[in-house]
Specification:
19% strand; alpha+beta; 467 residues; 3 domains; homodimer; 37% helix; Vanillyl-alcohol Oxidase, Chain A, domain 3; globular; Uridine Diphospho-n-acetylenolpyruvylglucosamine Reductase, domain 2
Chain lengths: 467, 467
């Protein structure tokens, strides 16, 4: 990795910074090997890079003080939430400290009348929804992992509900951030829309810790629908399943979730989650609305599915069955990894215009069918986004090489279809070159932004853009 | 105006730039007084500032060449669409050229299967919807004026449909922009979501010509709903009307439009648009969905309205009646201006969290009731956004002073309620100080962005941030 060879802080600088951090944080600053190792790796196959130390912050003011110390001594800072990212976002490529925000887990203010909530960055999406349970409101963005809101904002996360409710891009109203010089800035107020100047909120959403440390997040909430129903539908072939999704979206059915799992993935989750679904390309769906509205949506989609070779369309309003279904969906990547002992998953993440989705998935299926690596496919196909969860043993170079080859081909296929190399996982240090392939000259604008807003290059260096 | 005293290009620079522009554009470069005067003013009360010349571009390549010439000679460039902005956005505060994009009016590509369209910046929203009429799709963003898509993107416009469909922030998928050094950049591909690097699309949406010239816009389209119905409902008092809106939003009714017009505004549009609505606080509503869904929504809102003192709730599925209603709504500002001969309107634009909306409007009503200026109120209240269309004669300093006083008080009231000084009109040169009051230290980040991305300060100088 070229990034690993980048300049690291000298031992003198680290020593000075560490002394100041210890004075500030006491035993909430750690250089223990196990703590460092935990903070240098995420859930992906990417090589971990341990930070030199880990600082556990409790408040925005403390984050500001930590950033000031690191800026004084030119020590890199890598924000850390739950470590569930997938492109090596938390790897300390150039050393420095991991800034663990999981202790910043206060719900700052719930505003049920305004349908919004402000939380500290370390609050996880499940903790938030648990807290909200008596308000009649919920926070829909659901990337599968129980990620922190700060991490979800930093990576522009989305997931299964995005087809109806949007991604973090659409749902973050405002951020409190600490700039690389320690200043604290609020990017917006709580009005639901604003034309007041450059959109700093959207600039920092998806910036992956490279421009600032996000310490508070204000997000939109939604009334829990009067009725929710879920459906499962198997298809004769993958084309029928994907064409059903496309027709559903094109007809404007406000489906809340519409997820594809191919035969390989269904087989994996049957084993992992003890289900007995028919091993075939399958859609998992969810409908939100009034009782009549939900029934109407389900009927419309059932008719579309029948036209596309559906083998039965089973729907339910039972909460338990729904929960079981979505838990299985969320465990899809772990189910994939469980196909082989000691394996991890390498999740691809392309997203294409929906008109090209069938072609992209069918071609990809052909490609991976010829490979020796198990390649379940699962996807948020309502957005044109799907993942191949390639099951690899990271210790076997031939498997990594093969997965890399398949990933390259998939991304070039998606880019040729006017798609993106990453729909929701982000760039981290795993997709630096693909970002250039995708954006061309626009990457130079991103580089200018990075240099202007983080002139010392201490904020998660080596991620998103190379300097 | 401090801005007017800012450095202007020397006559030598202008002469050199004009010679090059004339060589490039022939008679599509003009220094005629009438042409210049047309391009230095918008629809607002703000003082116009004529540019030194006007360049009419026909393509992205031509825009790039024009920008290169202006960069070479340090001549300011002010992009111009239809001139319907409201905060002096097109005023040539420091001279330079107006870059008229209205000739860039090609529909580049309609992708009905992907629910998106790419247009040149000069295409207006009405022209776009006319072009789309046989596709079953429509573009919902509707700021009232028949603005260009480039201008709407540049000002982060929204309007009556935003409560359901979002603003330009949510609906622009990608932009083609010319940077201040003439480079052409595409900000994104056509995938509906992406986590590939910094969100340049959102950075340029709302940048008001200060960072780039937008030359192409890709936006989302929506299926024309199976059923549309509209409703009109008068209330005993303004509190009842606003509380109806709040309850509707909080109950998650997916209303497409929910607009407030106060008694003064109803009186004005009765006269201007030849209607005979009861002179009382009134909501105009529109529902989109299936036939059953639309009926269900209307019934729900009718029940809420009754609880809040509604005096009758009249709904219709007739297209003609609907069109007449919304045309009257769109003409509200002109109806206001028509209250006094020779008058113009000064449109305020605050947006507050919806829980504070009743209080904000009621206090504002009290305030303006004591003024000698007619002050109709109209608003996209589903978003918490409303306008006081203050009717002023720009030649009478005492009227401008009074409107300014009312505007100051309104904005401070909204900021104290965690709102914004502009929900959809933008900053231009009319709200520079309010931006600072609203954002504080965050404005310094905006200034850093401006300096990094437009180091020569030739892109619409004097707007959004002072340097």
């Amino acid at each position: 990795m070229a990034e690993a060879a980048a300049p690291r802080p000298s031992p003198e600088r680290l020593t000075a910074a560490f002394a100041a951090l210890q004075a500030l944080l006491g035993d909430r600053f750690s250089t223990a090997v196990a703590v460092r190792a935990h903070h240098g790796k995420d859930e992906s196959y990417h090589a971990p890079f341990d930070p030199d130390g880990v600082a556990f912050a409790r408040s925005t003011e403390e984050v500001s003080a930590i950033v000031n110390i690191c800026a004084d001594h030119r020590v890199p800072i890598i924000p850390f939430g739950t470590g569930t990212s997938l492109e090596g976002h938390v790897a300390a490529l150039q050393g420095g400290i991991s800034l663990d925000l999981s202790g910043m887990d206060r719900i700052v203010s719930v505003n049920p009348d305004d349908l919004d909530v402000t939380v500290e960055a370390g609050v996880t999406r499940k903790a938030l929804n648990t807290h909200l349970r008596d308000t009649g409101l919920f926070f829909p963005i659901d990337p599968g992992a129980n990620a922190s809101l700060g991490g979800m904002a930093a990576t522009r996360a989305s997931g299964t509900n995005a087809v109806r409710y949007g991604t973090m891009r659409e749902n973050v109203l405002a951020l409190t951030v600490v700039l690389p010089d320690g200043r604290v800035v609020k990017t917006a107020r709580r009005a639901r829309k604003s034309a007041a100047g450059y959109d700093l909120t959207r600039l920092y959403v998806g910036s992956e810790g490279t421009l600032c440390v996000i310490t508070e997040v204000t997000v939109r909430l939604y009334p829990i629908p009067e009725a929710i129903s879920a459906a499962v539908c198997a298809f004769a072939d993958i084309k029928g399943a994907v064409d059903t999704v496309i027709a559903t979206i094109q007809q404007g059915v406000p489906v809340a979730r519409i997820e594809l799992l191919d035969d390989v993935q269904i087989d994996a989750i049957n084993k992992y989650s003890k289900l007995d679904l028919p091993v075939a390309p399958t859609l998992f769906l969810e409908f939100h609305g009034s009782k009549a509205g939900v029934a109407e949506q389900a009927e419309t989609v059932e008719a579309i599915a029948k036209d596309n070779g559906a083998r039965g369309f089973r729907w339910t309003t039972q909460a338990e069955e729904r929960t079981r279904l979505w838990q299985a969906r969320h465990d899809a990547a772990y189910a994939a990894a469980a196909l082989k002992p000691g394996a991890k998953f390498w999740a691809t993440d392309v997203c294409v215009p929906i008109s090209r989705l069938t072609e992209c998935i069918v071609e990809t299926k052909k490609d991976v069918a010829l490979s020796f690596i198990p390649c379940p496919i699962v996807g948020h196909v309502g957005d044109g986004n799907f993942h191949v969860a390639m099951v690899v043993d990271p210790t076997r170079p031939e498997e990594i090489a093969e997965a890399s080859r398949l990933n390259d081909r998939l991304i070039l296929r998606a880019l040729a279809m006017n798609g993106t190399c990453t729909g929701e996982h982000g760039v981290g240090y795993g997709k630096l070159d693909f970002l250039v392939a995708e954006h061309g000259e626009a990457v130079s604008v991103m580089r200018t932004l990075k240099q202007a807003l983080d002139p010392l290059n201490i904020m998660n260096p080596g991620k998103i853009v190379r300097l």
